[in-house]
Amino acid sequence: MKSRQKKAERPLLVYLNPSQVTSAYWLFAECKFGNYPEHTERGGKWLIFVPVALIDEVWAKIKFATEEGKLGKTAKVSTARPNPNSPSPDKSVICVYTYDSTDQEDVWRVRQVLRDLDVTWKIPYKTDEDTHCGRYKNRGDKRISKYYG
């Protein structure tokens, strides 16, 4: 019965702001237009740390740009549900994925689009490999970022 309830609830999350959601850790956006390459094992993401009070506003811009095919294939945002991997309860994080961390031209293209969306402060880029290996700043790991821009 629980699995049916989760499936029924999931579409409703699409219409909620991250600050309104406590039943899931993440909300997602997916590219609806364009031909962005499929994600590879060398993928990664830009990590955009945002004060909780501003997360809905920043997420709306990034979600729209992702859906319009201006960024990568997917993006996700942390919700109001407390997450043990979060470095700070005062900040939320938005992950904007790129298909291949070694494709520097694409990685930096996505970073420029984020700047155009008013994400003008320095942000780190983390490979999926580091995430899968459990490397997190709040666990004491240092120099995780492949890029910082």
Topology (SSEs and partners):
Layout: H1 2-13, E1 26-30, E2 44-51, H2 55-67, E3 74-78, E4 91-98, H3 104-116, E5 124-127, H4 128-132, E6 147-148
Antiparallel strand pairs: 1-3, 2-4, 2-5, 3-4, 5-6
Q: Globular, elongated, flat, extended or rod-shaped: what is the shape?
A: globular
Multimeric state? single chain
The CATH architecture classification is: 2-Layer Sandwich
Biggest sheet layout: 6 strands, antiparallel
Order of helices and strands: HEEHEEHEHE
Q: Count the strands?
A: 6
Mean pLDDT: 87
- Low-pLDDT runs: 1-10
Across the major sheet, the strand order is 1-3-4-2-5-6
Which class do the helix and strand fractions yield? alpha+beta
The CATH class: Alpha Beta
Amino- and carboxy-terminal Cα gap? 46 Å
Secondary structure tally, helices: 4
Helix content: 25-40%
The CATH superfamily title: RNA Cap, Translation Initiation Factor Eif4e
Number of domains: 1
User: Which percent band covers the strand fraction?
Assistant: 15-25%
Q: Return the CATH topology.
A: RNA Cap, Translation Initiation Factor Eif4e
Roughly how many Å is the radius of gyration? Answer: 15 Å
